Amino acid sequence: MVELRHASHCVYKIRYHLVLCVKYRKCLLSEPKRIEYLKTLCNEIAARYRFEFDTIGTDGDHLHIFVGAEPKYSPSRLIQIIKSITAREMFKAFPELRKSLWGGEFWSDGGYVGTVGDGVTADIIRNYIETQGKPEEKEQYPQMRLFQFVE
């Protein structure tokens, strides 16, 4: 279980499951030296941007990443940082990759991002929100009663 983290003006616990695909779904992440280098790059990215890489895995043509980040980084910015730095450095370290990937791009456009919680479900959050406030406040200010947008 990941602990709460502190930024300058907030406390947070934000974690994502990312899936990044190699361009054209080429199986270029199967060699151990490339995987080890990718892990090293992720450690450097973590140090620079204060990301917390929990787990990294590959099936050869795509990469799964379990990562935490400060709330100042949107999920799309997080992906952009990881993709751009890893692509540039992988091409530098392994110039032979350019022969397999024409156009100078290592990663496919897009990808997958999902938020990850510690057993917290939508129902738990709804219940938490609905039970906030003192009973006398709820009676005094009925207009503050909560409602659901989705039925």
Structure, explained:
- The protein has 151 residues and is α+β, with helices and mostly antiparallel strands.
- The protein has one domain: 2-Layer Sandwich (Alpha-Beta Plaits).
- The chain is built from five helices and six strands; from the N terminus they run βββαββααβαα.
- The strands form two sheets. Strands 4-5-3-6 form a four-stranded antiparallel sheet, covered by helices on one side. A two-stranded antiparallel ribbon has the order 1-2.
- A hairpin with a 3-residue loop joins strand 4 and strand 5.
- The model has no long low-confidence stretch (mean pLDDT 86).
Q: Which key terms come to mind for this protein?
A:
6 strands; 20% strand; 5 helices; elongated; alpha+beta; 4-stranded antiparallel β-sheet; two-stranded antiparallel ribbon; Alpha-Beta Plaits; 151 residues
